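Appendix C: a fully annotated inverse folding record. The material below is reproduced so that readers can follow the format used throughout the book. The structure is listed first as tokens, followed by the designed sequence.
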């Protein structure tokens, strides 16, 4: 996993988690859903990079 892509994935996951928690705290379902979506996007980016690393010849 490249450092740039890993940083992007971690940033998306963290930003999504913050939005999800904030949305839950204030009762804003829209913000909570947006946070879940962003967190999932980060998870998918990380999974893509791990898959690329797994098939890369050594």
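Designed amino acids, in order:
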């Amino acid at each position: 996993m490249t450092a740039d892509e890993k940083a992007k994935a971690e940033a998306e996951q963290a930003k999504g988690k913050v939005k999800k928690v904030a949305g839950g705290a204030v009762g804003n379902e829209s913000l909570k859903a947006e946070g879940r979506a962003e967190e999932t996007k980060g998870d998918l980016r990380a999974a893509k990079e791990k898959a690329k690393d797994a098939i890369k010849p050594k």
